[in-house]
């Protein structure tokens, strides 16, 4: 009796083995992080990736989040609660330094010590970015990469704006109106 019900459970998609989410990644129906289980990055990888991004050009924290999302293929967006502490750690290690742009926002850039650390870790950094490219290609073949990226960008922008303690009721309402309008547009498509 149990065996028959279990087979029905599996056959009708009510059970998925790890690695059988969309595109064969992740778990139960979505949100997977690629062929790897659990977290997107192994220990120390996020630090190297962020360091590589600020070595390309000085960036704001939000730009790092957006760039990571795009490089991974759009289905992953690191939270500010992960990115900003990593930037602080890189700064404390002497690998990154901050400056301010014209609007007074923090820009993160690499230091000579950070460049040396990247040079020592070049094979690992190259392997991480190669993994991102493979993932992006798989998402592109499925036709969902750009949709997922846009959704993650919207989510990150909304969270960042609403977490700012200086958002006025009018600004909050404008965000609500924009989200409602986007939903209506998508429904009509």
From TrEMBL:
Return the Pfam families for the record.
Answer: PadR (PF03551)
Gly residues: bias regions: 21-35
Positions in coiled-coil regions: none
Region: Disordered; residue ranges are 17-38
Residue span(s) of domain Transcription regulator PadR N-terminal:
50-119
Q: Which InterPro entries match?
A: Tscrpt_reg_PadR_N, WH-like_DNA-bd_sf, WH_DNA-bd_sf
Note the Gene3D superfamilies from the entry.
Answer: Winged helix-like DNA-binding domain superfamily/Winged helix DNA-binding domain
Q: What is this protein called?
A: PadR family transcriptional regulator
Q: Which organism is it from?
A: Roseiarcus fermentans
